[in-house]
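Record format v2
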Amino acid sequence: MALDLCFYFQVHQPWRLRPYRYAEVGQHHDYFDVDVNRRILRRVADKCYLPMNALLEQLIRTHAPNFRVSFSITATALEQMQAWAPDALASFRRLVATGCVEILAETSHHSLAGLYSREEFAAQIARHRQVCSRLLGTPGTVFRNTELITTDAIAAQVAALGFRGICIEGADRLFPAGRVLQPHPLAAAPQLRAVARHYRLSDDIAFRFSNRQWSEWPLTADRYVDWLAANQPADGGERLLGLFMDYETFGEHQWADTGIFDFMRHLPPRVLARRGLRFATLSEALARVPVAAPSLHFPAPVSWADLERDTSAWLGNRIQQSAQAAVYALEPYVKAVHGPGRATLLEDWRRLTTSDHVYYMSTKYWADGDVHKYFSPYDSPYDAYVRYMNVLADVAQRCGAQTALWNAQQLQAA
Amino acid sequence: MLMLGWEYPPLYAGGLGKASQGLARGLAACGADVQFVLPSYPPQCESAGLQVTGVREWLRARVHTAAATPRKRGSGLQFFKLPVRLAPYERPAPAVRAAQARRSEVTPLNVEANDRREAIYGSDLGRRVARFAQRVVRLAAKVDADVVHANDWMTFPAAFAAAEARHLPVFLHVHSTEYDRSGEAVNPFIAGIEREACRRAAQVFAVSRYTANVLASRYGVARERITVAYNAPDDDEPQALRPAPDAPRAPWVMFLGRLTFQKGPDHFLRAAAEVAKYNRDARFLVCGSGDLSADLHALARSLGIAERVEFRGFLRPALVDRLLAHSRVLVMSSVSEPFGLVALEALRDGTPVILSKQSGVREVLGHSLQVDFWDHARLADRILALLRLPALGAQLVESGRAQLERLSWQETARTLLQTYHRVCGTPLPVDF
């Protein structure tokens, strides 16, 4: 009888675009802002990856083998670390080598391919396995899709690709009270098991921790452990609790001076001192905790974003839909190119499938400014769209897809 | 209140006339008793726009124009037209300006002195500003008012003259400053009026934070003496004039405004030349008249885009609407734009806008493309994007309109009324 606490941390960095004018189409094929990307990666490595990895490694060694966590790291983040922060990459590798850290599978480029292209979705999952094997020494096991976006079609394909577990958002509309603590089968993929994020307890750390207006501020490890323990099953059975969050929570979203590192330093000993609480990787929890009925249906996409927990942060307006339609309209043309330029073109195009590019185009909170604005390197969502579409025009020219791009652009969705 | 303003109802799209109208109506709708005084024009000149030169017969004083505004009859809004020829944005002739520039001491708000010095200034405009002031004083003697509200510099001397006689507080409403209109080459006579009026006013309303910054930096007006009161879209546009949102649009790129330094038509043409290199279909419509007209024709020729540019001159409002409704984008390339009502009119016609970052309207219209007026390459890039990406224009119009719905003249009028009461130390009505 126990409650398995499943921490999973998401690590991702996009390849941000440099200012790219339409006048450069056909002239320049370098789209990514090396200086900005290097600077941001270096900053995040110094403020988050390196100090938090060091803390986790120390906690793992102190409590071996009882402190266990999971990570999902995109290929775009791993390759930028390889280029500009090899120290951070090495520290992730050391974490994996402890045997107490599980790596999850996802798309290599943190894309929305699962919603647009079965072929590319599978290709990016395969590419992620390769990169993780090469740089971290292990491929992913349990699957998580970009931003936990899940649909019936995605679930079915993930199962067909051989995965047994998938991370999903514990959205209220999916789960009756209490059911979020058990794996669920999926209607579209009966052999696949879904592990749900407990959004309240996850966001207590990821969003509310430093909020001085929050009635629970300042949050202590002791009080948080009480909240965790309150989810122990009364019937003495096995349950799990998904604590899924962006890794940048530690040191970047919540700065060091908020006490977030101290909180995490004190959490494991207090959890392990409680009867019935323990840490587990996602695979371990899936193997231990009995499956609940009924099966989950996803008639519409469910994600972990915003209050809506849907895809509106990426596909909520016309320009976002236009940008995604355009980039996937180029797929067959990019893949039809053979010869020496193929690998570079394919990688450039894949970097443009990264969901961050359309996230920057969100107008949901634009007028009032908000979390979206904070994460965007652009003056406005419209600037983000124009720059992106300028780059796509050059990609289209490189693979002879000008007409296809033009036609895709004339569609006005929404 | 006694409000000194401009042509009513507005003679053409955009500008001071529309703003004065909006303010007056908004105040009346809030229950204020507004007596609106404006210089009048002969009817035949009104129909031709703002050309006031060469006309001898003036209307008689105190023409009540309720017929022009049947909607608002009995609403507390009353009109007086005074027989003085004054047009917004009117400027002294260049020779006069040069003469004025040589003068150092100016006491611009003293209309009597100005009147006597008209030989020195040699300015017909200065004389008419003074005459307007004299008539307003006479009129004010017959009008019961608590505050005087003056719209832009040509009414400032009149406002102080009228207020002095009655010991009334003067509120200035700055829709544009001499520095917006002329850059560094200001007319010292006009700048002097603006500076002195701001110094003496009970409070100054600015149409944007941008204009508030200009007032603070150019005239040294303390921030707490400036209240920002944004313009708003027209509330009574006839629906029938609006085009269907999905109507096909030509690859027209439109400039709409006076052809003056302030409006940046030259920057528009330089960006157009960039656009023309990459888009063979685009045509550029320059709508408006002004002192740069001949220069702009020459510029279009030297940029090699003369065949792609149509100079349409000054247009009737209905024609402006029709052209806007068929254009793919309106470009506001102003060097200094205190607000920019034209952007609101374009959105109303379903046309996306590119705004100058040197403008006030961008403060209330975040859903827009914004560029520095001098950044021709970036402006061209944004025009090219709107020409080829229909989703961009559709999203800008949809979100921009939603944002503008939060603005209204009545809300702006409430800001004015709150400020009157705060500055005068009188309590707001309980039902406010």
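Residues 124-140 of chain B form the longest helix (17 residues).
Chain B touches chain A through 26 residues (CB under 8 Å).
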